[in-house]
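Worked Example 4.2. Consider the chain below.
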Amino acid sequence: EDALLVPVDAVMMEKTGGGKYVEDVEYVYIKNNDLIYKSYLNVVDSNSKYYRVCGGVAEGDTLVCFK
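Applying the procedure from the previous section yields the following structure tokens:
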């Protein structure tokens, strides 16, 4: 399986949906030259240090940490 490890400190959460269908969605901010953009993650699993993801970031991306 092609998955990348993303540090917990780089991952943010937002709520999506409504009513009883609210869920947390993980995302990161990626810096590319002078541009910073939001990218939603496809999380496979996680632990206290890393999220294992299969989409939303690529190897070599520069992540912005706000924590």
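Strands lie at 4-7, 12-16, 23-32, 35-40, 43-46, 50-53, 62-64. The CA atoms of residues 16 and 22 lie 6 Å apart. Compare this with Example 4.1 before moving on.
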